[in-house]
Write a structure and sequence with these properties.
Blueprint lengths: L4 E3 L19 E3 L19 E3 L20 E3 L8 H8 L7 E3 L11 H8 L5 E2 L3 H8 L7 H13 L1 E6 L7 H6 L9 E6 L1
Parallel strand pairs: 1-2, 2-3, 3-4, 4-5, 5-6
Antiparallel strand pairs: 7-8
Length: 193
Amino acid sequence: MDVLVLYLAGQGLRSIPGLSRFRRLRYLWINNNKIQDLTFLKKNYCLTELYLNNNELTDITGALKHLCSLQILLLHNNQLGKLGRTVKELKGMTSLQTLNLFHNPLAQDRSYRLYVIYFLPSVQLLDRKRCEFENRTNKVPFENPEDAILVRAVTRSLVEFTCLDWNKVATCQEKRLESKPEEPHEKLTIQFR
């Protein structure tokens, strides 16, 4: 349930079972597969980065519009053909900043870029070529799965407890009347792993 990052790129997947158990999922790589349907994303509202490039998607209608937090969406090298339907699906994504749609049949239209820019004003980068995303989409987040487990264990297990002796802190009235001398505050902080 606490999974934030899921890397399923380049696995030759044709379909993916529902990912609804990963409700906090923020980063999802399913690029370089053979995915044709995105119904498995119905409950993943927290996604901020979604890498769907190099698949066999022909239509995304009804699959992505609920992803209001999405900032990066890569859909290049698919089979998306209907520009109007695709843009309508993405129209409600006010956080969307980066969008790649190149190498799709819909990108053959001469007015394609103007249409997307007009209807998706939040997009700052449209069809950024490989140079910027190559490192992100083709790189495994952790070379060794044990490293990922260690990082997750360390970040989840840190607990900090801080204590302050409020008897040594002057109240508003004492400050106003200057009846109690100001003492240095002692703050005790303990970290548990």
